[in-house]
Design brief:
four-stranded antiparallel sheet; 10 helices
Amino acid sequence: MDIMKDIDMEQGSGLRAMGQGIIVALCILVLGYVLNPFFGAVGLARLSWPNNLYLLILMVAIGLIVGFVYRSPLLNWMARGYFVTTLSGILGLGALTVFIWPSGVTNSVVQELLMTPFFLLLVIVYFIGGIYFARNIVQIKHRWTRLLMLIALLGFSYSTVASQRDYYSLNMRIGSERALFEADDAYGSYYRLPFAIKLLADEEVTSKNTEEQVIRFFKTVSDYEDVRMAANDEYRLKGWKVKISSDQPGVLQEKKLVDLDLVFDRWMELKYISLLVLLVALLLRVKY
């Protein structure tokens, strides 16, 4: 009877911790939403590599120091497994939403929440995660699956929520005279691409649709592909998304030039690796 009573008390404590985690997460999101004009002015959610990583490493370091040095009921409350899991789970839902719809969702309120409010939640979860690691490092043999899940979730959240704006966005103006390897960003900096692009002249290829452009993508000098592209078409090559710019001035059409938009998500590998590790850790957690 005493064993059953202890189990019931543990389950009741876990449910309370989960409920408290949901309330705290909602309060953080509402606070981020209300204070978004202030956070937007300081550019909190617009931080990019490596500044966003520096901030989150700092929060983990502070959490580790606080967790190792101080002992208080408040820190014990924050370091409870069910509480941390609930906060991380809500953060994970936001990260998964960004992963599925990287270009944003149609609902303006949800889109606003996925920016500054969820970034604020991410910062706090990194801090609490540091406290949790400090308090459970001595029991790593018994809680390694939970710690692995938290590490994977923090990595997945960084590559999605913290890095929503952290991608290469380049422009390229191509013609039929020669293939180009370089593109420039909004600040005028040039980047060399792992492939070359050239616009094919009318005499080289004939397109049935006058609104289409035939573009040749060179992986190597002898390995290339000719792609018919209209304004809304997209071509993917070596992790890059290439589209014809929606705004094509008439002077470019007269000179037979085309503007391209090129986007590359530098954190794509981290997204898939951390998501895979998270799923494996979850399966191990259920099994063991």
